[in-house]
Amino acid sequence: MEGKVVSGDRSISQAALMGNAARAAGGFDRLGLGADDTVAMMLRNDFAFFEAAFGAGLIGAYATPINWHYKADEAGYIIDDCDARVLVVHADLLPQIAEGIPDGVHVLVVKTPPEIRDAYGIPAEACAVPAGATDWDEWVAQQPVWDRPPPAMRTNIIYTSGTTGRPKGVRREPATPEMAAKIDEMVSVIFDVRPGEERRTVVTGPVYHSAPNLYALMNVRDGGLTVLQPRFDPEELLQMIEQHRITHLHMVPTMFVRLLKLPEEVRRKYDLSSLKFVVHAAAPCAPETKRQMIEWWGPVINEYYGGTETGGAIFHTAEEALRKPGTVGRPIPGAEVRIYGDDGQVLPAGEVGEIYLRIGRWPDFTYHKKDEMRRECERDGLITCGDVGWLDEDGFLFISDRKKDMVISGGVNIYPAEIEAVLIHMPGVADCAVFGIPDDEFGEALCAYIQPQPEAGLDAAGVRAWLRERIAGYKVPKVVEFRAALPREDSGKIFKRKLRAPYWAEAGRQI
Fold this sequence. Notes:
The chain is 31% helix and 27% strand. The longest helix is centred in the N-terminal third of the chain and has 17 residues, at 14-30.
């Protein structure tokens, strides 16, 4: 089938989108951009994102997506740090960052489309390109088509979530043909992207985030059908799967949890038989959640593990998930994983330590303008994403938690992810985060923040009692708080720093 991208009631053929990208490249060239320059993009899931990203790549420039939740200071930092000379931004997002845009950056404004307007309740007047600003669509239409030979491939500069301090930009060296082939090989395993095979997918996550970004770009590049979901809604996703006969999906565990909490009559209402390959990553997935999804959708649920820095180096199938509950998989061909102790020694199977990964012949990276931080995350040529875990005797990797999230209470290591995996299944719990707070007696104590479902009627004592029946008593949080919403990115990651920081500030110390 001919490649096509769909968003709401709008659609564009792959050929037309790539034609716009070639004109965008011509326009970037006329603005003076060239190899290794940067185009920043603050866009939701929309056609313009792909036009700008592919257009930057055609001239050998880097594209840098920006989290569209950011305000002026946050976005301005990234635009400045990545040395962007052009910013492409949705009209409704421009006012929230206008004061942070550095001088000299050429701003191109994209009309916010109706489906995004409706999904986020944006006033119609905020969706129009403001007077005096440069309209992206009009600008692209006026540019010459870029038809020069493509340079060495640059991947996008992706900024990490910034859970500790300012975000860091992961900038890779231009890929040689051998490196580009290795990227395609990884993608063929973890995303099941295989040229020539029909693919019909929904992009459910925000394309500013590393994994949805690569997934979406590869799908649009290789053709087939790509449906953009402006904002994740569980029943709407089921509707899209049935309507478009979706074959492939990229998801995060939070989406699974929300899908599983739909009423049974809603879950059984839609035909999902077209699904062939569903992959998830980005956050821990409770084994019970995985099992329930496999029972519902069949043995199409796969998982990979890695990071922006490492790529998806670890992978496993539904069959392996059922055989090895809790695993994130084994290294893909050409990848390596090791577990290191605090003394720098490689640990044997079964012992918990920091996880280091690499994929051979993978384009190397640095943190843009922060080479010293790049050196800090490497050991013996392998890179850590900051997670701790262990390998079993068969070489399957298990994640305990983030190294920085591990709580040491009374000398005992406690992994909040383990508690969260249980707590998320408590009736009435929509979302949760567990972390360490200062404690005079034990050094640290556990604190849980819960986002309850409407009219759930939860209380702290009830939560602790429910957990005490399912986990060891020392793992039951001492403090339980409730909030209408938790500070979570669409990627599935909760900004625990924002919840944790006030407790440590009051204690006069930091962790």
